[in-house]
C-alpha cells in the first residue's frame, strides 16, 4: 500500500536502468502512477500545473519503465527506466543533476548538453525570429505596445509608487517565486480557455483577457530579473507562436510546454531564462491563433486599462 502525502503525491526517483545514474526526481499522484504502470512509460503530476504530464510527450525523450521499487516506509519510489533520446532533463542534459555545488555556493556545470532546448521546444534562433517578424503586419504596433508596457513596469520597479500602483507594490515586495506562481496560474487558465474549461464571457474575449494576464506576469518576471527588452524580444516570440497557426497538441504536450516555460524562467542561466520568456510569449501567440484573435489585442487590452486609470497618456 503506497503512502501518498496530504497532497496525494509521492516522490519518484528516476534512475537509468543500465548505468544506475539518477536522471531526475518528480512527483506522482495515484493517477500518474497507474498510467505509468498501464502504459509502461513514466507519467508524473505537475504541482504548478495541477495536471498529469507524460514525460517526453513533446521532446520524444520518453522513459520506458523497467522496474519500480518501493522504499521501506512505502512513501517514495525508485523507478528504473530506459531513457529514450539520451536526455532526461528539459535543459538538454542527460541528467537533471548536471551541476555541482561549490563551497562558495556557486554552481559548476559538470556534464555536456545533449540537445539544444531552444531547438527541441520550438523557439528558434534569432535570425529565424526576425524572419518570422518581418512577414507579420502586426510586428511594428506589437513591438511598440509591448515596449511601452515593459518600460512602464521598469519605471514602477525603480520608483516606489506602492501607494498608487499595485504593480509597483508587487515589484517592490514580491519574490520571483511568487511571480512565477501567478504566471503558472494564468498559463493554466489561458490553456483552459482554449479547451472550454474556463469561461467568462466567450472564447475570444477570454483569450484576450487571459493572454494579457500571462503577458503581464511574464513582463513582471522580466522586470524583476532586469532583462533588457531586446534580449527576449517578446513581440517576435509572440508572432512566432501566432504564425504557427491553430496548432494544438494534446493536453500532455501543452502541460509540458507550460512546465518547461516555468522551469526555464526559474533557472540561473541567462540563456535559459530568455528561452523561457520566449516560450511564454509564444504560448500566448498560439492561443490567439487558436481563438482567432489578433496577437496585438492582449497588449492593447492592458494599455487601455492603464489609460483608463490615468497611468499613461
Q: Descriptors for this entry?
A:
313 residues; alpha+beta; two-stranded antiparallel ribbon; 8 strands; four-stranded mixed sheet; Ubiquitin-like (UB roll)
Detailed description of the structure:
Helix 4 (139-158) packs across helix 12, helix 6 packs antiparallel against helix 7 and helix 6 (176-195) packs antiparallel against helix 10 (251-265). The chain is globular. With 313 residues, it is of the alpha+beta class. Helices cover 50% and strands 14% of the residues. It has helices spanning 30-39, 117-120, 126-134, 139-158, 166-173, 176-195, 203-224, 229-232, 234-243, 251-265, 270-291, 297-308; strands at residues 10-16, 22-28, 43-46, 51-54, 63-70, 77-83, 99-101, 107-109. Mean pLDDT is 86; it is low at 123-134. The strands form three sheets. Strands 2-1-6-5 form a four-stranded mixed β-sheet, covered by helices on one side. Strands 3-4 form a two-stranded antiparallel ribbon. It has a two-stranded antiparallel ribbon with strand order 7-8. The protein starts with 9 loop residues before the first strand and ends in a 5-residue tail after the last helix. The chain has two domains: 10-109, Phosphoribosyl-AMP cyclohydrolase (Ubiquitin-like (UB roll)); 121-308, no CATH class.
Structure at a glance:
This protein is of the alpha+beta class and 313 residues long. It contains twelve helices and eight strands.
Overall average residue pLDDT: 86
Uncertain residue ranges: 123-134
**Share of helix, binned:** 40-55%
Can you tell me the number of structural domains? 2
How do the strands of the widest beta sheet line up side by side? 2-1-6-5
Largest sheet: 4 strands, mixed
Q: What is the number of strand segments?
A: 8
Please report the distance between the alpha carbons of the first and last residues: 63 Å
Strand content: 5-15%
Total number of helices: 12
* Strand and helix order: EEHEEEEEEHHHHHHHHHHH
Overall SS class: alpha+beta
How does the overall form come out from the CA principal axes? globular
**C-alpha-based Rg, rounded:** 21 Å
